[in-house]
Amino acid sequence: MKYAKLGNSGLIVSRLAFGAMTFGSGNIPSVYKVGQDLGQNLVDHALDAGINFFDTADAYAGGQSEEILGQLLGARRKETIIATKAGMRVGPALVQAGLSRKHLFAACEASLARLNTDYIDLYIVHKTDPFTPLEETLEALNDLVRQGKVRYIGYSNWPSWLAAQALQMQRERGWAPFINGQMYYSLIGRDVEHDTVPFMTNSGVGLTVWSPLASGFLSDKYTRDNLNDPNNRLSGFDFLPHDKEKGFTILDTVREIARHHGATPAQVSIAWLLAQPHVSSVLLGSSKIAQLDENLSAGDLELTPEELATLDQLTRPEPLYPNWFTTNLLDPQVTEALKKHLS
């Protein structure tokens, strides 16, 4: 197992993390399907493989994911880093959602109880809340850190402009800063490269990746023929928007690269993410030991520079304005002069 520092902090995380979203049962049976016994096998297997980073959220399976993960880690909790999230709706009352001071305090206490722990290593706000002032959210997170209930804080699914505004406010006021942004990123979903990645790289915020296989699409278990099969996961939880036809075209190339390495498309897809210098850790969601083993093996797969270039060119997102304007209007004389100087 390889490890990395998470952002501009001293927190050292495994580059492959264990995502516990599948733990529990509930209204999305294609996602929530791992019970206590299988969960124990998966957690033990992950720990034995060197994973020290476990991710969950209070909204997963109505809190069952946190409960099960806390029970399964047991005495080994001190060896691990637990990340959990808040902000999604967890009850019927108006105040049981969002990023208000009231809800964050209540959500943190509830997560601590379910996880059976005295502190949360990384507390992540799960989404934005346009109804709560940013200052209120950030001050509440800082207070949770000062109280010792939370060690570090992060965000998930925030636009880069809001994360930048938050980080500036945290630094100006001496509040605990965001060290992590957990974002969707995959070979068929590279939107974060427009603004999020440059912001994180320049600000010392570590990028962790959720859904590296695009809800299983890059695992190569779906075809044009079975895509609408009511029994597959995508039929019950097709959450990530992307051009499926383009995705199948990308998979053709991924399969070729996988065959060259004696690997699987899933392993190639994860290995591509791990090769990106801006990625700290990739979350693996597994519901079978064989599936976890397959994904773990991606950590040992090194793609060639030519393969990385092929995948990059094939999947590169169209540039957005003003990014393309900036690139196209770089001064050629200065660019050439600096290139010679740096070389």
What does this entry look like structurally?
This protein has a single domain (3-342), classed as TIM Barrel, CATH 3.20.20. α3 (101-115) runs parallel beside α4 and α8 packs across α9 (265-274). It contains 13 helices and ten strands. The protein is an alpha/beta fold. The longest helix has 18 residues, at 244-261. InterPro entries: AKR, AKR_Detox_Biosynth, NAD(P)_OxRdtase_dom_sf, NADP_OxRdtase_dom.
Order of helices and strands: EEEHEHEHEHEHEHEHHHEHHHH
- Counting structural domains, the number is 1
CATH class: Alpha Beta
Rg, nearest Å: 20 Å
Number of helices: 13
Q: Outline, from the CA principal axes?
A: globular
> What is the oligomer described by this structure?
single chain
Arithmetic mean pLDDT: 94
CATH architecture: Alpha-Beta Barrel
Portion of residues in helices?
40-55%
Low-confidence stretches: none
Task: Kindly identify the CATH topology.
Answer: TIM Barrel
Question: How would you characterize the largest beta sheet?
Answer: 8 strands, parallel, barrel
Strand order of the largest sheet: 3-4-5-6-7-8-9-10
Tally of DSSP β-strands: 10
How much of the sequence is in beta strands?
5-15%
Structural class: alpha/beta
Question: Could you give me the name of the CATH homologous superfamily?
Answer: NADP-dependent oxidoreductase domain
N-to-C terminal Cα separation, in Å?
Answer: 34 Å
Protein name: Aldo/keto reductase
Pfam families: Aldo_ket_red
InterPro entries: AKR, AKR_Detox_Biosynth, NAD(P)_OxRdtase_dom_sf, NADP_OxRdtase_dom
